[in-house]
Amino acid sequence: MKWFRRRKAEDVAPAHLPNAEEAARRFWERWFELVPVVSAALGDGEPHRVEDELRDLVSAMHPDLMFSLEQGHLAMYALVITGQEDPRLRPYTDAWIKAAPPTDMVWEFHDSVPPVPDPTEVVVNLGQVKMRLGDYRVVAQVDGDVVDVAVYHPALAELTEQQRQTMTFLPLDVTLGERLAGERLRRVETAQLEPEGTISLLELRSLVRTLAQVSDD
After folding, report:
1. CA 189 → CA 57, 147, 164, 182, distances in Å?
2. pLDDT at 2 over 80
3. CA dihedral for 169, 174, 175, 178, sign (positive or negative)
4. pLDDT for residue 17
5. What is the Cα–Cα distance from 118 to 53, expressed in whole angstroms?
6. How far apart are CA 50 and CA 56, in angstroms?
7. Which of 100, 125, 170, 216 could form a disulfide with 109 if both were Cys (CB 3.0 to 4.6 A apart)?
8. SS3 labels along the chain
9. Per-residue pLDDT tens for 84-128?
10. HSE of 179 in the Cβ direction (CA atoms, 13 Å)?
């Protein structure tokens, strides 16, 4: 899993942004031209060959969108484009996923980070630092229908502040899925030392899913 950060707004600086439906239409027109090159690059294990073109393609829809190329659940590859639950960006991701082609053997598409089947098997490489999500521990405090969490991993102290923030939220998104995390997690903190009474990411998933089912009944 590799997330590609958007360029700064001043670097993108489009003359204007089309409406969401037009932005989605333009994206898919260009995607169908580009997808053979993207698939070939991923098949060769060299996603960097198409990173700039994909970044420009996504930024043309809206410069604040983020995207990732991942292993698919039903297909070989997955393209995720997310507004990180920003309501300003929801019309763009809604229009994009509505216009997306159906899943086939090669590609599937998601408008938010989907939960991975087993997050404890995921390893994220940040330069020289490898972070196994199975080593994360979480303190969860339930308050009504939401949960406050403190996130700990022994390698978090080795990261920059920006990396630390990313690696605090990313495990929660891939464990719960971005939508459920946005709905049910209230306060999220990074723990400097391992707290007492921690649970695993899979235990957090079970807790939050149970809470959501009870609340929605």
Report:
1. 33, 12, 11, 14
2. no
3. positive
4. 60
5. 31
6. 10
7. 100
8. CEEECCCCHHHHCCCCCCCHHHHHHHHHHHHHHHHHHHHHHHHCCCHHHCHHHHHHHHHHHCCCCEEEEEECCCCCEEEEEECCCCCCCHHHHHHHHHCCCCCCCCEEEECCCCCCCCHHHCEEEECCEEEEHHHCEEEEEEECCEEEEEEECCCHHHCCHHHHHHHHHHHHHHHHCHHHHHHHEEEEEECCCCCCCCECHHHHHHHHHHHHHHHHC
9. 778 888 899 999 999 999 999 999 999 988 888 888 988 887 777
10. 9
Paired tokens of 11: 């670097």
Across the beta sheet with 137-143, the strand order is: 137-143, 146-152, 185-190
Instruction: Calculate the alpha carbon distances from 39 to 6, 44, 97, 113, 192 in Å.
Output: 21, 9, 20, 20, 40
**14-51: pLDDT as tens digits:** 434 669 999 999 999 999 999 999 999 999 989 889 98
Q: How far apart are CA 125 and CA 32, in angstroms?
A: 30
Instruction: Decide: 204 and 176 in contact? Cβ < 8 Å.
Output: yes
Q: Which two tokens stand for residue 93?
A: 């991701």
The strand pair at 185-190 and 146-152 is best described as parallel
One-letter amino acid of 111 = D
d(CA 189, CA 211): 20
